[in-house]
Write a structure and sequence with these properties.
Radius of gyration: 25 Å
Helix content: 10-25%
CATH class of the largest domain: Alpha Beta
Structural class: alpha/beta
CATH topology of the largest domain: Rossmann fold
Number of helices: 7
Shape: globular
Amino acid sequence: PPLLRAQLPALGRLLCFPQAFVGLSKATTWYQYGFAQPQGPKPNILVSGHEIRQFARFLAERLGVPAGLGGPDPPPPPPDQDYILVFTRTRNRLILNEAQLLLELAREFQMKTLTVSLEEEEEEEGEEGGPGGTRPFADVVRLVSRASMLVSMHGAQLITALFLPRGATVVELFPYAVNPDHYTPYKTLATLPGMDLRYVAWRNTRPEDTVTHPDRPWDQGGIGHLDRAEQERIVQSREVPRHLCCRNPEWLFRIYQDTRVDVASLIRTIRRTVPGRPGPTPGRPQGAVSLYPSKVREARCQGSARGDAGARLTVSWQMPWNLRYLKVKEVKYEVWLQEQGENTYVPHLLTLQNHTFTDNIKPSTTYLVWIRCIFNKSLSGPFADVLVCST
């Protein structure tokens, strides 16, 4: 039960913690799922692909998957060992012409196609983990970590894209009336600096290639619990409007549809992003990635009040250690200020390594300060450890 202030005197001597973390840190969150506003990328993403790949390598090692994820990549497999991995589903959100899809992908890209599933099923007769069957998660990670392309309907299984090798392609399929621009957790992941993945979204635009399930329970996309007019409106709708998580009936109705993929359209869509063979960029050594700035060093901040004149916050830091070794045309520093307890950030782009902030700085207030270096306008380094400063 909660501890009330009136009970504190009876507890004896108390120990005060000046800083504490309750639950999981949100510093590695890149997406918000629409509990207060329609879902989308976080406005201020603190994590990069470098940290994601470091975590993927840690998890893979604990699962017993060979090293190579996130660090120096293993040598590329011979061309005859390249493959495309397709996530298969058997309960909902089905690809109705999966066999045709596998055949045409193999023919177009001249490589094997394999299927894998994360669904939990009762063990059936035959070889455990056979083609299309359920595999132990470590086996799924092993397959993903060597795939040249990952293909899947929109769904949580696409989080495994964080195990893909650099240069691989993520292909996300969306059912009819579901706009890919409105649901981008995996696009956001794939395009984080340092992930080095190519991302493709394909959307079914043909209602005749869709099988709906209006009679299922509401949490599986059924709409029988709605009044007749609302059911007809949803069936006739051509696009799910923006909505909050997580019980919007039109969203559930559409996302649990089954889809017959127009394979020719899908291949054209992939080819716009992947003109050649999927996998590591041709002519680019496996493991060769863009150089990003490291963390700024010796970051400090100091706050002070100025009576009726308000307050100021002075922040300083030293340049990243690798800056002196790189030929960089333009260097800037991004400083984010957040009033403790608030959800919004104020970003500032600076050219110097120190700055005194006075605008909108409040006296007797605690601020959280993040600093990172940016090379050539687009190559962002990781944030230094957060600073806690009081005015």
